[in-house]
Write a structure and sequence with these properties.
alpha/beta, six-stranded mixed sheet, 261 residues
Length: 261
């Protein structure tokens, strides 16, 4: 269970990115985080693992309050929070296998990580995950030889090899074409279901959110303004979140795509 209680972030400029965000996300639930640019979505994800320090409020994962942890305890807690990035965050000159195994750096000692000497059990798990995400045949390729969709699959495997309790996913389809975007969202949701993982997916594409997740949370100007099921995203609600648009056409497109899949 992830609990956010009155989470607030105010930057030194005085800009308030988050304001009293309170959410509960049970184990195994996937939520889509939507809202216009600048709404606070990426800040929220980064406050959870404290890549951005919250100004006030609390974040609790499975009974441990993350916001009060010292540096050593925070490093250990971050093992339990896998992060998937929009820009993949791979080391281009390393192989696919080496990039996946980098997800285990928090578990091995300094010299093992420096020399990239991982236990056989980690190597076996990396192969298994690469097989699961469809990249086993590319284990020895350099990351800079991959397409965008392939890079994102490596990022997913790297996050999962941490054996996390929570996935934080920041715009995983922003740089991908529509077909690949659907494949990546389907893969993320399937893997979460297989492992009983909770996930927060920051996503701009409302239609993808409606197709693949159980719950949608919308932010605007740092406030939660919607928390409900995909079917509750009516044209009126979407107008409240984003402003005027032909939302009837968007909803019709989602229904057509769901019929195709």
């Amino acid at each position: 269970m992830l609990k956010l209680d009155k989470l607030t972030k105010v930057y030194k400029t005085g800009d308030k990115a988050l304001s009293d965000v309170t959410l509960k996300i049970p184990g195994g639930q996937i939520i889509a985080l939507i809202g216009p640019s600048g709404a606070g979505k990426s800040t929220l994800i980064r406050c959870i693992n404290r890549l951005v320090e919250p100004t006030s409020g609390s974040v609790t994962l499975d009974g441990t309050e993350i916001t009060t942890l010292g540096s050593g305890a925070l490093r250990r807690m971050r093992r339990r929070m896998g992060m998937i990035f929009q820009e993949y965050a791979l080391v281009e000159r390393l192989t696919v296998m080496e990039n996946v195994l980098s997800g285990r750096l928090g578990y091995v000692g300094f010299w093992r990580s420096f020399l990239r000497k991982f236990p056989q059990s980690d190597i076996d798990e990396a192969y298994r995950l690469l097989d699961r995400v469809g990249l086993l045949h590319m284990a020895d390729k350099r990351a800079d030889e991959l397409s965008g969709g392939q890079r994102q699959r490596v990022g997913i495997a790297r996050a999962l090899i941490q054996d996390p309790a929570l996935l934080l996913v920041d715009e995983p389809t922003a740089s991908l074409d529509p077909k690949t975007s659907r494949q990546i969202m389907r893969l993320i949701t399937e893997l979460c279901a297989e492992r009983g993982l909770a996930a927060i997916v920051n996503i701009h594409d409302v239609s993808l959110a409606q197709m693949f997740v159980q719950r949608v949370v919308a932010l605007n100007l740092g406030h939660v303004i919607f928390d409900g099921g995909p079917a509750d995203l009516t044209p009126e609600v979407l107008t409240d979140i984003y402003g005027e648009e032909d939302w009837e056409a968007t909803i019709a497109k989602v229904e057509d795509e769901e019929e195709e899949t």
